[in-house]
Structures are given as structure tokens and as C-alpha cells.
Amino acid sequence: MGLRVLAAMSGGVDSAVAAARIAEAGHDVTGVHLALSANPQSHRTGARGCCTVEDSRDARRAADVIGIPFYIWDMAERFQRDVIEDFVAEYAAGRTPNPCLRCNEKIKFAAVLDRALALGFDAVATGHHARLVDGVLSRSPDQGKDQSYVLGVLTREQLGHAIFPLGDSTKAEVREEAARRGLTVADKPDSHDICFIADGDTRGFLTKRLGAAEGPIVDQSGDVVGSHQGAHGFTVGQRKGLHIDRPAADGRPRYVLSIEPVSNTVTVGPRSALEVTSITCGRPLWNGPVGDVPGSSDGAGSGRGTVPADGSGEFTVQLRAHGEVYPCRFEETEGGLRVEIDRPATGVAAGQAAVLYSGATVIGSATIVSAA
Fold this sequence. Notes:
The protein is α/β, with parallel strands linked by helices. The protein has helices at about 15-25, 55-65, 75-90, 100-120, 150, 155-160, 170-180, 200-210, and strands at about 5-10, 30-35, 70-75, 125, 130-135, 135-140, 160-165, 215-220, 225-230, 255-260, 265-270, 275-285, 315-320, 325-335, 335-345, 355-360, 360-370.
């Protein structure tokens, strides 16, 4: 007997093919498009933005081709509070958030999943490129499209009610299948950047909400080398758009090393000063296979466990979406996690997620607090 599955349909090719596969497998599927903007644009700007009227129409057309019921759920207020306002607040505090990760955590696998279960659905299916076997999350075979990192914040309970039908497929295979199925989104560009900043101007978006406030750009010696209109417009590791008045003596480019929101100061320096090997994290979440990795001893739906002092092993950590992977050791501290990596990483920003892997399998995640 098939499951009752709610298929989240963004209007893109991945979610359309995911819904089609679930329906073809014999499950009772209902499509739902999440209206995340209170004032959606009519059309996307190329590959920028999402949640437009065009996207909702594309999702509806795909549901019609598949032959499943389709609804639109208004999640704009929840998205504004849990994703957009969180995004602005994190930048105001000098951190660099990942809104896609927060959307998965708070919207797609909290608000939507909670409503789906309350309505009698067994699971929520999405078009994410990641593998899920018996509630265990792993990487997609398409490394260029792998989205296990942005799903690493989900609990075991949430993963237990999730289905990722594209887990064993590459993006090229998904597009070919969409064309065979007669889905008009087969060639639709993927969304990229931040969905609620359609023009890609993150600094302008933040300035409108936080206001302009002139502050100094200083070097490692504390000497003022430029000025800015708001520390919220920068992130650690940033090289472009610094508007430095005094070039470095060695002529090499400077990068943002730190952001101090209280004094509204941005510190810059050479790339070598960005190198870190020790990362302090908060809010550790263990969602890997029960009994196989540190932190998985409780088996509870929360995914929270206890990491032994000896957290060494064949583990790796990813520090940003589509970022480099580093061999690591880790140990749980009081209320947090310390991760030691085997070679220096650069551009490690507070507010981002550190997602831990054993091979291709996600074992847990935590929020980066600081690095040295």
C-alpha cells in the first residue's frame, strides 16, 4: 500500500520530476506550492529569484501533467519571520547566515512537515539532490548539485518523514527525464543566489532594512585604510567591493578578516590571515546512523547525542554550501563543538553551518561561532 505524500513543488524541474517519480511509484501524491512572498513578482529574472507568479503557474502545470491534485499554501508570514528577519538580524550581529539552510529547517521541514502530518500525510517529498536511506542522509552522486549540506540541520525525526526521489540521479538525468515526461520546466534555469533578493544586491537589501552607518575599514594594525556605509554589508573572506583608500604596501589584495557590529568596524588583511584550523561551533545536532558514529547513541528523534572526548576518526567537515571538504577531528564541549581540520581553511564565517560527514553520510551539524 502506498504512502500519502505531500510533494513540495517550487516550479522548477527538480521538484516536478520528484513529484512525478513518487506518483509513478504508486503513492497517493498531492502537490503543494509554497507562496513565500507577500508581493510576488510576476516573472523571474533569469536564474535569480523564485516564488514568483510564474513559478506557481509552472508548478501547477507540472501537477496537471503528472495528474495529481495541486494547492498553494501561503507561508509568506512564516518565511518573513523565520528566514528573512533571521537573515537581517544575523548580518546585523556580524554573522553570515545561510537562508537556504534556514528555509529547509524552519519552513520546508518544520512548518510544512508539521502541517502535512496534521493533515494525515505520511511524508513530504522535495527535489533536493541528496540520498536518504532508512532516515540516513548522504551525498548525491552529482557532486556539483549535492544539497546534503543545506539539509544537515534536519533532525532524525524530520528525515524520517522526508523523501528525496532524486537521490541517485544527476542533474542532466533529471532534465532528460523531465523532457520525456512532457514537463515544460525541463529547460528552466536553476535558481541561485538568495531567492528573496532577486537583483542579487545583498548589500543594498540590508542597507534598506538596517540603514546606512559610516564606519572605518582598518588593517591589522588598527590603521584606517578606508570607510564603509555599514558593517552589515560585508562577510569574512570578502575581497571585492571593499573601497579601500590606502592599498597594501605589498600591493596584494586585502580580504575581510573580521566584522565588529558594535563599533561598526571592518578589519582587512592578507589572504594568509584568513587561514584557520580550529573552529568553535554551537547548537550541535546529531542526525547520523544510530550506533555507528559518535553522538548517535540516544537514537531519539531530536538527533541529539553525546560525543565522546575522543572524537577522532575518518570524518570530514564542510563549512559552506558547495565548499571544500576537510578531514577533521571533533569533540563536544559544554554547549558546543570544537572541530579541528587537517589543513587550513579560509573564509570561515560565523553563522554558517559546519556539517560533519563519515564518508558520504551526514552525521551531524553545528553553527560556526568562531575560528582561529
